[in-house]
């Protein structure tokens, strides 16, 4: 029996290593291409290593005109979307889970249905919507970061509501009754009891919102047309795509720099993220 269990564990570990290697290999190749000399990349060097690592590709990326502004724009949009979508989704999850009202089931179905609509099918209607909104609210029109914040928040809320619903439903009703007996109102219960207990779910939804917003290219390219100062990092990578020959070293170095904030954010919240994903599946 021990031999069978050991063999099964070896197979499981081996399969896990293979999957991890398959997932990590593109990241390794990205970093390797960013460190290879430009001449080696132009020559199509296929070797999975380099004996002459260089930071020239990173220097070219950091010297792009306005790179710091692009970075600040991406951070600003991502931060606003994470806070706004998480807050809206948490309050919506509380309303849909802790209170009973007419058409509650219909709203839940609408929330999950919103996730089924392809983003590409909504790009053109959203473009005209942002153009029309810009006439009434300039800060939310085309060429403004507010358009990206609004659209990404709208796309992040449905998934966040569905995930947080399980966490909110898992909080026992007895805690709410005890809070009422202690004189706490609805707002005090939600902010002082319910929110701390659902913190893993909040973290899980926030990281999904952050990644979705941080890596966005489609909406940034569609809504930010001529305002160079409001471009985001994914658009900055376009400067390394040339009509005659692409600067693959710059592209890969820029991709590495874009990946670092996501990894840092993930490292800070990884423990709560694991429990958050488990709670979302359970819910």
Entry keywords:
283 residues; mainly alpha; 13 helices; 76% helix; globular; disordered C terminus; transmembrane; membrane; Carbohydrate ABC transporter permease; transmembrane helix; cell membrane
How does this model look, in words?
The chain has 283 residues and is mainly alpha-helical. It has helices at 2-35, 38-42, 56-62, 67-98, 104-114, 119-136, 145-170, 173-181, 186-197, 199-214, 218-223, 233-236, 248-282. The protein has 13 helices and no strands. α3 (56-62) packs across α13 (248-282), α4 (67-98) runs parallel beside α7 and α7 (145-170) packs antiparallel against α10 (199-214). The longest helix has 35 residues, at 248-282. It is globular, with a radius of gyration of 23 Å. Mean pLDDT is 81; it is low at 276-283. Residues 71-269 form the ABC transmembrane type-1 domain. Its main location: membrane. InterPro entries: BP-dep_ABC_trans_perm, MetI-like, MetI-like_sf. It is a multi-pass membrane protein.
Radius of gyration (CA) equals 23 Å
Task: State the shape.
Answer: globular
Rounded mean pLDDT score: 81
Q: What structural category arises from helix and sheet content? A: mainly alpha
**Number of DSSP-assigned strands:** 0
Poorly predicted tracts of residues:
276-283
H/E element order: HHHHHHHHHHHHH
State the separation between the terminal residues, measured CA to CA. 36 Å
Keywords: Cell membrane, Membrane, Transmembrane, Transmembrane helix, Transport
Family: Belongs to the binding-protein-dependent transport system permease family.
Protein name: Carbohydrate ABC transporter permease
Transmembrane segments: 12-31, 70-95, 107-129, 149-172, 193-214, 248-269
